[in-house]
């Protein structure tokens, strides 16, 4: 149930039995109730002057004057205090009385009245009430016992007010803890999302967006063991752009970058989902083709050459294609060494060439 749908008594689990036990702890008995009730007419007759005296004493304390702040608040407080003083002498210290005391504690906590100020106010009110009793109750025994009853009742009230202070502070702490936990959880989610993004980025070549050599090596291990298990073929295309240095030298680095991006796009367009293209370094590219024999790798290579030539008819590519499997499989480095040799063989010929 929402806190706002519960009384403070419910929130703080103060039952009638608990009230009874607290009254006993304060050593308050029915005879004390009667004594307090007996002086109600006397208190009632002087209530306005008691409230005035109380606020004169309170407003003399700067911290309290600042907290009260304005005349409307002061008048509202005077009204509440008027009722509180009459409640003190009502002789009825039941759940309604207790709930009102708890509310006072809550209000004090909310508006920032520190316990030391609350205690000083109680002490000041007690002195004023004692003074009234001293001046009007003739029977010395009754006077002493009434003052003792009032003293005990203030003690009873103070424990209630302090309990609301503590309960309210615990609620604030729990709320702060909840907020911190929520913040920590959201940070954890952000960090893990960012970690995934960074891991992805660390595997990509920033210029072309295809895998870098590191990612290719990681994936090669997985792909080669998969084809070995399935006794399948595995091909590799390795190539670079002929005289790429001249592109940079003659047309500038930006033009060179653009050519590298176009090649990557051509590769993307002509490989299968299961193939793994990669920028091996500089102007060298590598494509891993699981479950592909030389012939299908060669036709992929031809399609890349053709689409690149559509954009850059003056540039040529030198390619080496190597196949491994289906029974025995080479390592990635062994394949690259062979493909690299074939690529250099292609370079010795004019135009785009694919050596298988
Ligand atoms: N624009 C651009 N150029 C790059 C990049 N990475 C490497 N290069 C250049 O690519 C060129 C590669 O030159 P070489 O290794 O001599 O190769 P080549 O000029 O293609 O010569 P051959 O391989 O013999 O045909 C160098 O000039 C590098 O500076 C890049 O990210 N962007």
Automatic annotation (TrEMBL):
Residues 232-356 form the GGDEF domain. It catalyses: 2 GTP = 3',3'-c-di-GMP + 2 diphosphate. Its EC number is 2.7.7.65. SUPFAM superfamilies: Globin-like, Nucleotide cyclase. PROSITE patterns: GGDEF (PS50887). Pfam families: GGDEF, Protoglobin. This is Diguanylate cyclase DosC. It comes from Amphritea atlantica. The lineage of its organism: Bacteria, Pseudomonadati, Pseudomonadota, Gammaproteobacteria, Oceanospirillales.
């Amino acid at each position: 149930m929402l806190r706002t749908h519960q009384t403070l008594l419910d929130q703080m689990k103060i039952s009638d039995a608990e009230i009874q036990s607290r009254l006993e702890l304060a050593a308050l008995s029915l005879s004390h109730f009667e004594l307090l009730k007996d002086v109600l007419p006397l208190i009632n007759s002087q209530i306005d002057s008691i409230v005035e005296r109380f606020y004169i004493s309170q407003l003399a304390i700067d911290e309290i004057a600042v907290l009260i702040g304005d005349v409307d608040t002061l008048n509202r407080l005077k009204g509440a205090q008027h009722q509180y003083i009459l409640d003190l002498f009502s002789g009825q210290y039941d759940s309604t009385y207790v709930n009102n005391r708890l509310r006072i504690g809550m209000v004090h906590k909310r508006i920032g009245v520190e316990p030391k100020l609350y205690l000083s106010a109680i002490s000041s009110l007690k002195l004023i009430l004692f003074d009234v009793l001293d001046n009007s109750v003739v029977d010395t025994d009754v006077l002493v016992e009434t003052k003792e009853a009032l003293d005990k009742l203030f003690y009873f009230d103070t424990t209630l007010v302090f309990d609301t202070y503590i309960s309210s502070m615990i609620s604030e702490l729990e709320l702060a803890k909840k907020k911190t936990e929520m913040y920590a959880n959201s940070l954890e989610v952000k960090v893990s999302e960012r970690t995934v993004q960074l891991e992805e980025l660390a595997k990509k070549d920033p210029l072309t967006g295809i895998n870098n050599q590191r990612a290719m090596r990681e994936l090669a291990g997985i792909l080669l063991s998969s084809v070995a298990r399935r006794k399948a073929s595995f091909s590799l295309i390795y190539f670079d752009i002929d005289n790429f240095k001249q592109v940079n030298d003659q047309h500038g680095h930006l033009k060179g970058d653009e050519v590298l991006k176009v090649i990557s796009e051509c590769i993307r367009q002509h490989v299968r989902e299961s193939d793994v293209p990669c920028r091996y370094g500089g102007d060298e590219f590598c494509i891993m083709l699981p479950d592909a024999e030389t012939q299908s790798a060669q036709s992929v290579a031809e399609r890349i050459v053709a689409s690149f030539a559509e954009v850059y008819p003056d540039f040529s590519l030198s390619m080496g294609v190597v196949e491994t499997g289906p029974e025995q499989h080479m390592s990635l480095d062994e394949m690259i060494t062979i493909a690299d040799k074939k690529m250099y063989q292609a370079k010795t010929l004019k135009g785009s060439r694919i050596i298988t």
